Amino acid sequence: MPRMTVGRENGQDIQIHFDDHGDGPPVVLIHGYPLDGRSFEKQERVLLGAGHRVITYDRRGFGRSSQPSTGYDYDTFAADLEILLETLDLSDVALVGFSMGTGEVARHFGRRGSGRVSKAVLMGSVPPFLLRTDDNPDGVDGQVFADIKRAVLADRPAYFRAFFDDFFNVDQYAGTRISDQAYQAAFATALTMSPLAAHDCVDSWLTDFRDDVAAIDVPTLLLHGDADRILPYAATAARLPALVKDLTVITVEGGPHNIAWTHPEVVNPALLEFLHS
């Protein structure tokens, strides 16, 4: 099981699990909450078939990685990503982030720039800035996130059930684009993540990424469902064209949050065309 050390807690290594498959131009896939690197299975197969080297990893607190009690913020998440890029000595890499993973992509550019990175993909984007403030009136009311944290503390499995209903727009796509088996597999994966991370990551969603996305200076692809109930289009994707210099936007009609699973016939061709352009 390939792992890399990204820190220590109480004398023990904090380790990140990663998978590194194939040859060719490298692509790093960065997963969303509350899943892990295996959630890109519909993309990994296609990317490998198209001649890419594909690297996935489980964020700290998620999947097969260590579950420390600290570090659930985007400065730390981005630092973990940087260690991965350096450990594998990746260059001319495409960073593909989904949901929470879009935050790592954005913060990487804000911290380190594009030295190792040739392209970026934001899928179901958290940036530019979710929280409603005086200078960000199009954001989401902070009470929404306080309620999420209370729900996680009160009954984490019940919260995940409600979350996944909106993650896949189950009322619309059950039995067609999301099977009961796939839903249950996602639910089981969510239960493996650290209970501390399930709560503490919510605060990270309120990170102000406006300066980070303005620092992106490579070709960037935005893929976002216009029926996204987790990260509403108007509060997220619709605002990025004004901030990202070289941005291609593909709006997935009727797409829920996890378009990588529900709409691969749109996502995969768009991803390959962008990477090969």
From TrEMBL:
UniProt protein name: Pimeloyl-ACP methyl ester carboxylesterase
Q: Which residues cross the membrane?
A: none
Gene Ontology molecular function: peroxidase activity
Cite the entry's keywords alphabetically.
Answer: Oxidoreductase, Peroxidase
- Family per record: Belongs to the AB hydrolase superfamily. Bacterial non-heme haloperoxidase / perhydrolase family.
Q: Pfam families from the entry?
A: Abhydrolase_1 (PF00561)
Q: Where is the AB hydrolase-1 domain?
A: 25-264
**Which organism is this protein's natural source?**
Geodermatophilus tzadiensis
Which SUPFAM superfamilies does the entry mention? alpha/beta-Hydrolases (SSF53474)
Q: Does the keyword Acyltransferase apply?
A: no
